[in-house]
Fold each of these.
Amino acid sequence: MSELGHIELERAVDSIWSGRRHREDYGDLAPLVESISRDGLLQPITITPDGMLICGARRLAAIRRLGWKTVNVWVRSGISTFLGQLLAEQDDNLLHKPLTRTEEAALYAELKALMVEDAAGRQEASRFTSEQENPRSHGAATVAAPQKGETRQQAALMVTGRNSYTSLERINELQQIAADLSQPDEVRERASRELERIDAGESITGAQHRIRAAQALAELDTLATDPAQPAGIRDTAAAGAARLRELEGTARPADLERLAEIAVERAKTATKKRPNQLASARLRAVEEPAREFLPVRSFVYLWDELSTWTERYDPETIGPALSNEQWVMFEHAVAATIAFLDAARAARDARRDTA
């Protein structure tokens, strides 16, 4: 006997009941009815100890159509009280208060896990049938188990009434980070704050961008303080972390995440050179001959022309319009510009210190 459940033989069909969360539109049941009539119920439906249906609404409808009086079931224990109450609802009026988005996500994750467990049993039963075995007494009819997207969609519909599994998956990711003891404390705390913001009505996508930026920032802090790392990596990581902290309150979440990714990439590819040497090292390969640089006057003219470029283009138009190759070229240009800025600032500061 498993800690999570056990097979129960000869459960009375009339003793199995379901709440309103299970779908009532079962589609075309005829193939399923025919399959069960021919091969038996190869995968038991899943119920709680008191007979409440968890998984297998279509199978239950099919065996009722066949007039079965008893059926083998998988009695599943260990589900949360909250999910049990949700599945037991018979009427909208039974809800005392609306679920928060993070509560919905937690229930969605639990229910999806139960559905995946049920689907795995059906796949195994189908495998036995394909090998021309007929385990009539235990096990779903010979129909395909739901695909991953379908399982997520069913779980989302049962919990929220909407096909909102993408948002629920994103919240689950934040919940997992908040509970993951291997994550840095500041990242876990940030994930918890983002979940609170989501419950307050703020953007789920924005929260996801911010937590990824926070993870990158924690990685930069680790690199910056790791004595085993070369000085160039430590210095570049520290500079990148400081810059990210400056931008946290003003940059758009998506931009912050991208800048964080660039900062980590730059830190990991830095050398032992000083910061004022890093940009030129990235802009030309070591084996290339030395180039003749343009004069300062040309640089001033260039940036005088570019000083208002962000006001002349609409990012909502540019973003979708660029091809993948054009977008990569643009990102590389931005990364090289930031590297050049860091090197120029370091040289400027060094000159000021010696003046």
Amino acid sequence: MATILYKLGRFAFRRRGLMALLWVLIFGGVGFAASSAPTPPADTFSMPGTESQKAYDLLEDKFPDASADGATARVVLRVPGGGNITDAGEKAKVNKVVAELRKSPQVASVGDPYAGGGAAVSKDQSTVYVSATYKVVQTKVNDKAHDALDKTLENARKSGLKAEAGGDAVKIEQSVGGSSEAIGIAVSAVVLILTFGSMIAAGMPLLTALVGVGVGISGITAIGSTVGLSSTTTTLAMMIGLAVGIDYALFIVSRYRSEIAEGRERHDAAGRAVGTAGTAVVFAGLTVIIALVGLAVVNIPMLTKMGMAAAGTVAIAVFIAITLVPALLGFAPIKVLARKDRARYKGKPLSEKKQRKAEARALKQQQPNLGARWARFILRHPVAVLLLAVVGLGAVAVPAASMKLGLPSEGTMAPDTTQRKAYDMMSQSFGKGFNGPLMVTIEDKNAKTEAEDVRKRFERTAGVESVGPATLNKAGDTAIVNVVPKAGPAEDATKDLVKSLRGTAKDIKADSGPEILLTGQTAMFIDFSKTLDDALLPYLGTVVGLAFLLLMLVFRSILVPLKAALGFLLSVAAALGAVVAVFQWGWLADIFGVDQPSPIMSTMPIFMIGVVFGLAMDYEVFLVTRMREAFVHGVEPRESVVTGFRYGGRVVTAAAIIMISVFSGFIMEENDLVKMIGFGLAVAVLFDAFIVRMTIVPALFALLGKAAWWLPKWLDWLLPNMDVEGEKLSRRLAAKEQVPPQQRHPQPQYRG
């Protein structure tokens, strides 16, 4: 593979105009396809095989009119100071609100707050809520409809009522991107400039990453309506695409500069950079793709599509790194170097003063850098460093054992949002369970009688606040009953109640035979969390297992991929422990702006495993391939660790700082869930890059010595040699040139 990529890198460097034109055409073509593609479909959420999904499917079949899936807005109105909402004057104000809602754009129907029909008055008669159903789904509620709802709330407040609104038809003010992404890119630019000492070199990874993300997102948009990819599918693709795009280009540009420093011709340096670093990029990309495609194991279509879309964006980032990056190097083969190093590579004679400075810099570059000194320190104290790092991460991981999972709701939004205020008003006036009612479907030829029996038995169940009357479909073979729990949607008592009611439903079915299913948003969230919990170990086993085989091909070792996987598990556990401590327990909540402790989002563990695994294996491949390369070229095992850190430590450090900066930007968002994602990914990269890869890994190599690269002879014979470290490539090039690379003059006069 190294030889093939070497030829590709040379070709891209020499035919840089053709390669750049090709990517411009791809970018333009995909962009045109995206602009002319139909509108992406609305977000759909399904969980095949769960009871909640079966109930929703039954409702679509038996209650086609009621299952229109239009957006809803629940307007909560209260008389301040304990007044009576049923008094004539207050009633007139409420009726005016209802009239305004009915005239609002896209509204299909509005319930009558004083005659049932989807609204209710609290027992103390201080509060009323009104449900408005829209003709369109959430993603198609337009600005006029949002503005009309806001205007209605404003008018209600002017009349003297306290008015707030919840539901999916209400506009969400917080934005996940925007300033967070801008901050991340700005910090990335600063880190790249400090790393390379060149604006051109710093700009290449940013430019190629943005091109890759642009092609990926445009491609998702272009085929979105065909394969059912919603607009939110691009979220994960954008985050991962930007991350790996910068990493991969950074690694190849850094290797090109190293090859130039060793005296290579420009086109040869580009070829070698792609042949060696590019091979590592290909395998690092494959590990990320495995982690993302593996989300299909969870069997939740939404996550599967997000994973597939992000995997496609990663594949594009890999192709750009091994084709467009060497082409851009061809346009600026010398300017990509640090300003102080450019003169001696331009083929111009240097003045005596500049020659002395150049020789001094060359001598300084031969001295151990910070990465090499850090590696030597660990090699001198491997046991102490290893114990300190493992015990430290283990201590941080302890809170993860008490992690409680849940899903975002209006109850977890920022306290100053209208959705959160409406949620709190409903809890205070109607009870916590009114924010998460359960829907029960009863299918039987004698549905009316069976529904009444279900109502009576459910009313006697502990934890039930109330059970509504049964609603029958036109055929009379299916009924719906609403159950209001006493506890809130995210409380453990509600989960226990759902389990208890489903047990009662099975007993009823065993007695008389009706098909009874529980659904509703609360039940769906509970089933979703359980589905993720059940899929976590299979997903982890699939991803880690496949990546283990891939890394065994890369490093031709059993212990190296084993320690890579175990180190990843340790860093993820520590990151989840930190998330639990801050967001669930409330530690340092004021520092990170967490408004209130809450359960951890159900998707966080699997989401973090997928994202962090990919980035962790990137760092592993980038760092250890340099060690492997030195080892196969005859360097003593312990010294190969120093070599790996000397050439790879700075690159991994820069890549990790960039990713931490990108993810940390999300911590400044107002929404606690966005904070959680940003915080979790930032600390996971921090732990994995600096503690696992750059501390635990060299300590283990120091203890294992040559045994780290052990591979049984029969397995060595079975595994194909991918030549990731470029050993075959180096021999072939050396034989062709008939001069060993190490004997070349370090400062050749380059040909244009």
